Amino acid sequence: PSVRLWSDYLSVPLHPQSLYVIRQFLHDGDCGCLEAFGQGESLLQEPACLEELEDRLHFFVEECDYLQGFQVLCDLHNGFSGVGAKVTELLHDEYSRKGILTWGLTPVLSAVGCWMFFPQNPQKSFYRVMNTALGIAHLSRHSSLFCPLSLSGSLGIK
């Protein structure tokens, strides 16, 4: 009846343990809060957040009969690249013998009228390029296979 998260739009319901809402960056209003790689990376250095993530991860790992590996989908263009980097580092450290397939996702940019292009704001463009570069470097370091995905040929970098 009430829509609170993007996952509420899915036709297949997700397990409640698979969603973790980051309270500091709720999307009630302006959603430009988590915009830098370092913000996302420092988020998982908070003990409460890290403990919650590990609890949820262990919940699903314990349900597996034969764990073969992990798939991580991560936005590269914003602060979630830092979150994904810390998550893959955690997975690599705790489950070093398991495969980690990481998908780095970037949106398509349009030069005309796209809210993601920011030609008038060089700081946001700089954040986008730096987030993508740092995300690719960190995610590929801790993944068995890193595959960037974008519908544009430039990985969303102009």
UniProtKB/TrEMBL annotation:
One cellular-component annotation, GO: mitochondrion
Occurrences of domain DML1/Misato tubulin (ranges): 2-150
InterPro entries tied to this protein: DML1/Misato, DML1/Misato_tubulin, Tubulin/FtsZ_GTPase_sf
Localization of this protein: Cytoplasm
This protein's record includes keyword Transmembrane: no
GO biological process: mitochondrion organization
Gene: Msto1
Highest taxon, organism lineage: Eukaryota
Keyword annotations of the record: Cytoplasm
Listed name of the protein: MSTO1 protein
Organism listed in the record: Cisticola juncidis
